[in-house]
Amino acid sequence: MRRLLLLACLAGLALPARAEPLRFVAFGDMPYCRPQAPEQCAVEEGRVARLMQAINAARPAFTLFVGDTKGSGELCTDDKLLRAHGWMSLADHPLVYTPGDNEWTDCWQDRAGRYDPLERLAFLRARFFGRAESLGRRPMPVQQQAGPTVENARWMRDRVMFITLHVTGSNNGRPPEPGEPGAAGLPRGPAAMTEFEARDAANRAWLAESFAAAEAGMRAVVIAMQSDLFYRQHCGHGYESGYSAIREAIAQAAARFGRPVLLINGDNHFFLHEEPFERAPNLTRLMVPGDRDAQAVVVTLDPGAAKPYRFELIGEAGMPPQRPACPGYSSSIRSTRSE
């Protein structure tokens, strides 16, 4: 009997310890100041500052901000773009940022000041991605993709690989196909198309390289970007030409990987999680709140669990709260605030 007990104890010691769940935070699409109500800008900035306090209190390993540091109607001035440095520096942990369309893609529009989007993109890259490290008070090193797409980052924590991909709203900055709905809101010209094609190819290459590296021992992969790749599937309209290739690449990579994959995006400003690919049931998509809802999602990730994710909202909901982008999304939204 004693020998059996000893063998049992030794067997227990030989088993690898179960890794602790990993906690991090994701949010985006704020603060949204509006030129027609300039007096409210300080209010919106205050809500984001309070949200940063709540995020710090949650003590995450790091935070992901998935784009849109300003409202679409704000001018794309240097000051407006650099405003994000102020509240991002409130994070007492690493904060990783991937850009949205409001920071550069849409800056050609009249309401944004008719800036050159490519010049604004170069400005963002120089001022936010000049070093191979995160933002926040305690930066962590990240691996950057080779130029020019230095904003694409990769890092590992607890055998989970994290990837950012520079995929934005407004059709990912791609000029429209002939007859494509919403063409008036998209950039035009050969320079815009050249930029899109290069970045789209770089995103797919970064994705493939990252998943190839993840095959060797990673328990899960997390992908963060700004754009909602599934708007058209839910709403029946919207841009498609700028998203089809990267969406297909993500579906294929996740299906081959087989282990948990979490795709995080912003863009449409309300909390949602779903499994969008029948052929890749291991992929969960999380859309974070934004705009009226100054909220973030605390993600608890346990790749070995039957349900790998727990999502918890923190921060201040709007009064009234943000509404779904279309009726097709209403039936997909999970009613629980914490799962």
What are the SSEs and their pairings?
Blueprint: H1 2-14, E1 22-27, H2 41-58, E2 63-65, H3 78-88, E3 95-97, H4 117-128, E4 143-144, E5 153-157, E6 160-164, H5 169-172, H6 190-214, E7 220-224, H7 231-235, H8 244-257, E8 261-265, E9 272-274, E10 283-287, E11 294-301, E12 309-316, H9 327-330
Parallel strand pairs: 1-2, 2-3, 6-7, 7-8, 8-10
Antiparallel strand pairs: 1-11, 4-5, 5-6, 9-10, 11-12
Signal peptide: 1-19
Protein name: Calcineurin-like phosphoesterase domain-containing protein
Keywords: Signal
Please count the helical segments. Answer: 9
Quick one: CATH superfamily? Metallo-dependent phosphatases
Q: What is the straight-line distance between the termini? A: 45 Å
* Radius of gyration, taken over Cα atoms and rounded to an integer in Å: 21 Å
Number of domains: 1
Secondary-structure element sequence?
HEHEHEHEEEHHEHHEEEEEH
**Mean pLDDT across all amino acids:** 91
Give me the CATH fold name: Purple Acid Phosphatase, chain A, domain 2
CATH architecture: 4-Layer Sandwich
Largest sheet: 7 strands, mixed
- Low-pLDDT residue intervals, each spanning 5 or more residues: 1-16, 334-339
Organism: Roseicella aerolata
Keywords: Signal
InterPro entries: Metallo-depent_PP-like
Signal peptide: 1-19
